[in-house]
Design goal:
Length: about 500
């Protein structure tokens, strides 16, 4: 089994990236993303990234081997949803103290915690997460997990992704490596079929994959494993018997998709369930792959019939929103797969993209954006809050779509804002999700509150029948400016 340093090196040498293949051997090792400088793991550490990928496995006990703060800061960090088991919502930690570290009790405390979880909850598996503290003091969690698995007769999986080794994205990939090393392929299913597929990099945010699964059910296509959204341990353990796979977020789990193709001959493609056209294209590509792997050819005609019916229904419902959204200008501040998939969905509504961030996007993601926008000036790597604030006015945007951390920039600019990241409360995937996205954008843009908040404040208007002198106006404007700067600094 590879050491942690070897896994990190391997994560940045990703041959599944089309652009990476054309590089020389030395440049290829750098991969599509760069390792961070020490202390600069902005946006989350490797431990956080591993937890993001694995915690949505709903029937597993997730045990964080660390002082209490590590689990407190990472628990419930995504708006994923479960259709069954809720054990993943229970927080487990060894809660190490200074005394445990100094006296060398930490490994014994970990073994005891595994035993207590097994006795109290009897989960199908326990995932144990290394963290900065336990990695720095040299705890051998792999040895402890191996001994516990033998003692208690259940899988105990070590997740060796301490925070200091790199960024959240690296943690995503190390989590995928842990699944390959310890979970996938450990159980043989007795019901494998020619229409079994895996969905990789789908997190079921706000339950949005539940809007897509019924479409696959109508075609008789079974999702053997959705990794990680609403997953079960046994589903993932048997995922190696799927016939094809769809990659939703290559930034997170491209290494998992590639290695499953190499080991078990599971072909994959990267697609999106955001927007009418992309959802239809994803269904076509899924069916094309499973037919090539042995499913009946008539599945293609059934898929086209389903697409025609669903598209007609979706466009009919979207007609109510298209006139109200046509030509509206959007600033999109997100990243990864959403940097191009949401862009495509918005252009279908007739909206104009005045800017989209590409901070967490791969080279392939950026190429897709270029094809959609036809203007590289609308792509930006990153913006400071001040630059985002200025861009909203300079680009004459009508709405900003982003995550919760930047919502107050839009609100300060008296601009409609809609949450498009993982904290959102609405599902936007599939045909139903596209209608919901249009509805939420329409509600945000045409909310009457914006007319009210953009009105001049009472102290900015002259009294009836009076005109202020230039000196008085300057004084009031200066006071208003000071107030605005003071609010901004807060």
């Amino acid at each position: 089994m590879l050491s942690l340093s070897a896994k990190i090196q391997d994560a940045f040498n990703e041959p599944a990236c089309e652009n990476n293949r054309s590089k020389d051997a030395e440049a290829r090792k750098k991969g599509c993303s760069k390792p961070p400088t020490p202390g600069a793991a902005a946006g989350g550490c490797a431990f956080d990234g591993a937890k993001v990928v694995l915690q949505p496995i709903t029937d597993v006990a997730h045990l964080v081997h660390a002082p209490l703060a590590c689990e407190g800061n990472s628990w419930d960090n995504r708006g994923t949803a479960s259709s069954g088991p809720m054990l993943w919502r229970t927080s487990f930690t060894t809660d190490l103290t200074e005394l445990d570290v100094v006296m060398g009790h930490s490994e014994r405390k970990l073994f005891k915690a595994i035993r207590e979880i097994n006795e109290a909850y009897a989960p199908p598996a326990i995932f144990v997460y290394a963290t900065c503290v336990t990695a720095l003091i040299g705890d051998d969690i792999e040895a402890v997990c191996k001994r516990a698995a033998e003692k208690f007769g259940l899988p105990v999986v070590p997740i060796d992704a301490p925070g200091f080794v790199g960024s959240k994205n690296l943690g995503n990939k190390l989590a995928g490596e842990a699944l390959l090393d310890h979970v996938i392929g450990t159980v043989e299913p007795d019901d494998a079929g020619p229409r079994d597929i895996n969905i990789l990099g789908e997190f079921n945010l706000s339950g949005e994959f539940w809007l897509v699964r019924p479409l696959l059910d109508k075609l008789g296509i079974r999702v053997r494993a959705c990794i990680p959204g609403d997953a079960r341990y046994l589903d993932i353990a048997t995922a190696h018997r799927a016939r094809a796979a769809m990659m939703v977020c290559s930034t997170a789990l491209i290494n998992l998709a590639r290695k499953m193709e190499e080991r078990w001959d599971i072909p994959f493609f990267e697609g999106s369930f955001y927007g009418v056209t992309d959802t239809s294209e994803a269904l076509r590509q899924i069916v094309e792959l499973v037919v090539k792997k042995g499913a009946e050819p008539e599945l293609i005609s059934r898929t086209e019939a389903l697409i025609a019916a669903e598209e007609a229904k979706a466009w009919r419902r979207l007609e109510a929103y298209r006139p109200r959204l046509q030509g509206k200008r959007v600033l999109l501040n997100t990243g990864g797969v959403k940097s191009w998939s949401i862009v495509h969905a918005l252009t279908e509504l007739g909206m104009e993209i005045v800017g989209t961030s590409i901070k967490k996007s791969t080279v392939d993601d950026r190429e897709r954006i270029k094809q959609i926008l036809k203007n590289e000036n609308h792509m930006y790597e990153t913006m400071t809050p001040r630059e985002l604030y200025s861009s909203l006015a300079e680009q004459n945007a009508d709405i900003m779509l982003s995550g919760g951390r930047t919502q107050f920039i839009a609100l300060k600019a008296k601009m409609p804002w809609l949450d498009i990241n993982q904290e959102r409360h609405h599902a936007y995937a599939g045909y139903e999700g596209m209608v919901e996205l249009a509805r939420q954008i329409d509600l945000a843009i045409h909310n009457p509150i914006w007319e009210q908040v953009r009105e001049p404040a009472p102290w900015e208007e002259p009294l009836a029948g009076q005109e202020r002198s230039g000196e008085e106006s300057a004084s009031i404007l200066n006071l208003s400016g000071k107030t605005a700067r003071h609010v901004g600094e807060c």
